Amino acid sequence: MTYQEVVKNARERIGKYCKACNVCNGRACTNLVPGPGAKGSGDGAIRNFDAWKNIRVNMDTICENAPIDTSVCLFGKGFAMPVFAGPVGAVNLHYGDCYDDTQYNKILVNACAENGIAAFTGDGMDANVMVAATKAIKEAGGAGVPTVKPWSREMVADKMKMVKDSNAFAVAMDIDAAGLPFLKNFQPPAGSKTVEELKAIISEHDVPFIVKGIITVKGALKAKEAGAAAIVVSNHGGRVLDQCPATAEVLPEIVEALKGSGMKILVDGGIRDGVTVFKALAMGADGVIIARPFVTAVYGGAEEGVKCYIEKIKAELADTMAMCGAHSISEITGDMIRILK
Q1: Per its Swiss-Prot or TrEMBL entry, what cofactor is needed (predicted)?
Q2: Which residue, among 167, 118, 129, 132, has the nearest Cα to 151 in the 3D structure?
Q3: CA neighbor of 318 nearest in space, from 310, 53, 56, 73
Q4: Which stretches of 241-291 are DSSP H helices?
């Protein structure tokens, strides 16, 4: 199966909202929610994608002709490349009823683990979503990252029991999900967390805790104060607040602010190919998260579709590294890109 065949198959199975575009740039779905689109004008998803195009790679092939190694160690675990599949919830609502969250997470977690990367899994109003996600991660030997919504502390504690039982190597909280309508009106109250509340949650758990949804230096420093092992520079795909800056626009200043802290920095938003993965790494990210294209991969080819997309990203990353003179991930440096004014 080729990636083109995966996309073609997905168009026939993915439902009425997502268009399974050749390039997932946020334009065809604009503000379609339900669906993969962004909030309001749809500006957030579009800007995320477009901002990476303002960064160019500097070709330099006057270097040793040596093998390319895309592997990396993060959170004490080795990966084939510093790329993770992102959490997606309510797939049957947003992407069509070909799969429900249980089926989707099982396919995604297993396929990612078998192909050397890991998947972040979603959470939602239906308690069975987290049950199924953590079960899939446990069956994959802990090779996944359950992503817990910012529920009340009691609910978070209940979810974290499942996380612990899954043997997941890390856990995440998408703190920006506080902007989702079902959390705003939830009882007991859920949503935004103070540094002290977040610190209390993190202190109760012994696996690396990742705070997803950081878009400012101020937010990054708060996550650091709370004791997070890592952050994800993310605006939730533009789905929770219109007119946010693109992740590529804020990544450099966040990297600078956290320099020497030991915190890992992941980034998502509009990353669709291996060249863009290279750009993010050159800007100082330790890894990237890609979400929406993995939905297309699952709907278009299940495990084989996910494998196909992972191989595509890895090949593009390796090719870019070779053409820019980096033979390992650690050799990717800031002078290998040019940020356009």
Answers
A1: FMN
A2: 129
A3: 310
A4: 247-257, 274-282
Give me the domains of the chain, ranges plus CATH numbers: 3-328 (3.20.20.70)
**Best CA proximity match to 36, nearest among 9, 50, 15, 51:** 15
CA distance linking residue 9 with residue 193, whole number of Å: 41
Of 277 and 189, the structure prediction assigns the larger pLDDT to 277
| pLDDT tens track for 202-245 | 999 889 999 999 999 999 999 999 999 999 999 999 999 999 99
Whole-number Å distance between alpha carbons of 174 and 130: 14
**How confident is the model at residue 187, as a pLDDT?**
83
The continuous run of DSSP H or E covering 138 comes out as helix 127-139
Q: Are 299 and 95 in contact (CB under 8 A)?
A: yes
The dihedrals phi and psi of 156, each to the nearest 5 degrees, come to -60, -45
pLDDT at 135 over 80: yes
Predicted pLDDT of residue 98: 92
CA dist list (Å): 52 to 31, 268, 269, 270, 282 = 21, 11, 9, 8, 12
Which among 112, 114, 132, 113 is positioned nearest to 122, based on CA atoms? 132
Residue with tokens 């090779």: 143
Give the whole-angstrom CA distance, residue 92 versus residue 168.
25
Q: What span, in angstroms and rounded, lies between the C-alpha atoms of 227 and 211?
A: 10
In the chain the first and final C-alpha atoms are separated, in Å, by 40
Residue type (1 letter), 303: E
Type of residue found at 55:
I
Prior bond to 36 cis, omega within 30?
A: no
